[in-house]
Amino acid sequence: MSSSSKAFQWLSLVGIIWLQSINGTNTTFPAYSSQLKNTLSMSQLQINNLVFASDAGKLFGWFSGIAAIYLPLWLVLMIGSLLGLIGYGVQFLFVTNQLASPAYWQVFLLTMVTGNSVCWINTVCYVVCIRNFPFHQQVAVGLTTSYQGLSAKIYTDIVSAFFSSSPHKRARAYLLLNSLLPLIVCAVVAPFVRDIDVVTGKQPRNMATGFRLMFVITIATGIYAVITSLGSMIGLDRMIGTGVFLLIPLVIPIAEKLRDILSRRWSLADRENKVYNVSIDDQNGLESIESGVVKEEEEEEHTTTVQVHNEVSEVQVQHGFGVREEIGVKLMVRRIDFWLYFLVYFFSATIGLVFLNTLGQITESRGSSKTSSLVSLSSSFGFFGRLMPSLLDYFFARSKYMISRPAFLVALAAPIAGVFFLLLNPANVSLIISTAVIGVCTGAITSIAVSITTELFGTKKFSINHNVVVANISIGSFLFGYSSALLYRKEGNDDGSCLGMACYRGTFIIWGSLCTLGTVLALTLYARTRKFYYKRS
């Protein structure tokens, strides 16, 4: 592959990073849910059901997978952004009274559409990563997906910078941004988020250097996000800083393009100087330089092929290891390990997601006005959580100290259980710590689940198998959200509002107990799969 193609390859990765950065529109819901509740005269139970509606929309995400097979990727991308425009845009018109007050079922349906829109953009991101980085699929997907954890912070910073501090006006601003920003970014990146002519027979040179640099940029971005979430910078300064960090990855494709230009000029000048006195062997050498292929380097690359293949689970499968078995849904649901895995996810990450989705009401009930700051904080720590598995895989996969992924689940589920009991403390610092911990652990479990599904149940039916696994999110959103709303209403006033620690005390005790059960189930899964992961290492 030429350096020019490599430049476009890295440019496509940058485009995916930008897409993922604005694709987490559903994560902004806690920042404006209280205002939406008041403006549209909804009960807490109805607000919780809207969280379920957003997740339920993702159950139809398989439509985007089919579309990606038969339609150009740019069209799939634009369909996703248009669905978001319709879902959030019509809600914006309702909130601003430009349309008559909606029936609840209309808002519910529109929220389902917005949840489904995320799937279309995600599908394009996954497909481009897998096709354009065949030797680094897992790393590329994990790294880019982590940026979706920044979405809530990005939207919060923009709203803080350009819109009024009035809660009702901020709610309108979130809906307006959720409808327009994804459409604008999709239109900008559509031309270069596409398939690149990548030679899959051999590993391209210098990719490791590019990914190391990308990891450094990504970690620096996350550190900046956390610091500004905890600090007192004004919204405009935070937004400009985040924008700069999102532009820095462009350094890699630009460097590749400059390298290609300089290489061609050097080759041309060298050929002109030697054209009169070169031998036939020298001419062959020059031709090799001109085509960008040096045999000695190819031989070196060939010796490292096995190491490169170890980085990608699908290539591991070709060598006869890396997955325990290749099975479909019918066999998978008969496996005890599947139900253990399903329930571990259900009693850890899913409860964490429900907590983050109801963060607005939880903060309000405790008498705090820091909802936007907490949403930004959870977003920043969720970013690191999503990045963590890819970072560990890339740098420590061959280390004897690297624990298995089921063991990692245990280490992530236990802190979630602990912080729910910490939330029984009325101090604001307990809410801050709990939000950060749940953000990190939930993001990490969401990311690591992709690899666990592949390793336990294979790659051939992965898209279907994993959709079955993550269906627990929709179920949990309804069950946990509905039960917490009932307890909230029980402790509340006649008007449906509730203030005080009692509003969510029972909910936190139940969630903490269930997450403790999830930790025990994760230990059981680890014990049952320990032999497989030991042989695999």
Care to describe what's here?
The longest helix has 35 residues, at 502-536. The chain has 25 helices and no strands. The model is unreliable at 285-321 (pLDDT under 50). The chain is globular and about 85 Å long. By secondary structure, it is mainly α.
Indicate the topology.
Elements lengths: L2 H20 L6 H11 L4 H14 L4 H9 L2 H23 L8 H29 L4 H10 L4 H12 L4 H23 L17 H24 L4 H13 L3 H24 L5 H11 L4 H9 L1 H5 L3 H6 L10 H4 L3 H11 L2 H9 L1 H7 L5 H26 L8 H18 L5 H30 L4 H30 L10 H35 L1
Helix pairs in contact: 1-6, 1-7, 1-9, 1-12, 2-3, 2-9, 2-20, 3-6, 3-24, 4-6, 5-6, 5-9, 6-7, 7-21, 8-9, 8-11, 8-21, 10-11, 10-21, 18-24, 18-25, 19-23, 19-24, 20-21, 21-23, 22-23, 22-25, 23-24, 24-25
In a nutshell, what does this entry contain?
This protein has helices spanning 3-22, 29-39, 44-57, 62-70, 73-95, 104-132, 137-146, 151-162, 167-189, 207-230, 235-247, 251-274, 280-290, 295-303, 305-309, 313-318, 329-332, 336-346, 349-357, 359-365, 371-396, 405-422, 428-457, 462-491, 502-536.
Approximately how much beta-strand content do the residues carry? under 5%
**Mean of pLDDT:** 81
Strand element count: 0
Structure classification? mainly alpha
Order of helices and strands: HHHHHHHHHHHHHHHHHHHHHHHHH
Largest sheet: none
**Structural Rg:** 25 Å
Identify low-pLDDT runs.
285-321
Please count the helical segments.
25
Shape: globular
Helix content: over 70%
State the separation between the terminal residues, measured CA to CA: 32 Å
